């Protein structure tokens, strides 16, 4: 049943464009930040890409608050997916992961913290396979949460800053975009080296 729901979400649910989402969330007034965090957590729990949420965070709240709310939302959703995977079991999660299953399982083997950090940072690997794979393939909660906190911050800031730059193309926002992507690249190399060392 869970597999069917995940597949349906992946192929049928699309988030509205960032500007439409901005208008809808801002319509909630002073509780818009809470609505945003809750919606982000739900999206992070599913195979729906989280990128649009982070960009919308920058459009709505700016770099600082947008980054804070995005990090909180994505961590809550990721943690929920981790525990959902634990309750489903390894075989069920392998089916849910589909094409990602072999890649995620082989990367996580033997280097929990370092592997989660690397997979979080490497471009092209969505958050949700890492969340479910970590829960199903034996990564401890401590390693999962620790690595996630470290690794999601620069990526979320870079996407939020992009949204803030679209809303207000200042030198400050442009600088944050460039610097955050440099941090992502540097951390990716660092995490990959740590991961290889840990596996050896």
From TrEMBL:
Its main location: membrane. The keyword Ribosomal protein does not apply. Keywords: Cell membrane, Membrane, Transmembrane, Transmembrane helix. The chain crosses the membrane at residues 30-53, 59-85, 144-165, 171-192. It is a multi-pass membrane protein. It holds the Pfam family VTT_dom. Residues 48-164 form the VTT domain. It is found in: Cell membrane. Signal peptide: none annotated. PANTHER family: GOLGI APPARATUS MEMBRANE PROTEIN TVP38-RELATED (PTHR12677). Belongs to the TVP38/TMEM64 family. This is TVP38/TMEM64 family membrane protein. It comes from Kocuria atrinae. The lineage of its organism: Bacteria, Bacillati, Actinomycetota, Actinomycetes, Micrococcales.
């Amino acid at each position: 049943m869970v597999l069917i729901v995940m597949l349906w979400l992946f192929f049928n649910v699309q988030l509205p464009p960032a500007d439409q989402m901005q208008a809808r969330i801002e319509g909630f007034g002073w509780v818009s930040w809470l609505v945003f965090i809750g919606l982000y957590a739900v999206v992070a729990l599913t195979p729906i890409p989280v990128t649009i949420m982070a960009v919308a965070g920058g459009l709505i709240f700016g770099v600082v608050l947008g980054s804070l709310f995005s990090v909180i939302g994505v961590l809550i959703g990721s943690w929920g997916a981790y525990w959902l995977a634990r309750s489903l079991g390894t075989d069920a999660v392998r089916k849910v992961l589909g094409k990602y299953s072999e890649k995620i399982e082989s990367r996580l083997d033997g280097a929990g913290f370092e592997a989660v950090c690397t997979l979080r940072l490497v471009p092209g690997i969505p958050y949700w396979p890492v969340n479910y794979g970590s829960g199903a393939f034996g990564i401890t909660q401590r390693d999962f949460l620790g690595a996630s906190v470290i690794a999601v911050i620069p990526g979320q800031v870079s996407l939020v800053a992009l949204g803030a730059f679209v809303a207000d193309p200042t030198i400050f926002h442009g600088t944050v975009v460039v610097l955050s992507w440099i941090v992502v690249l540097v951390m990716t190399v660092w995490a990959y080296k740590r991961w290889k060392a840990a596996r050896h």
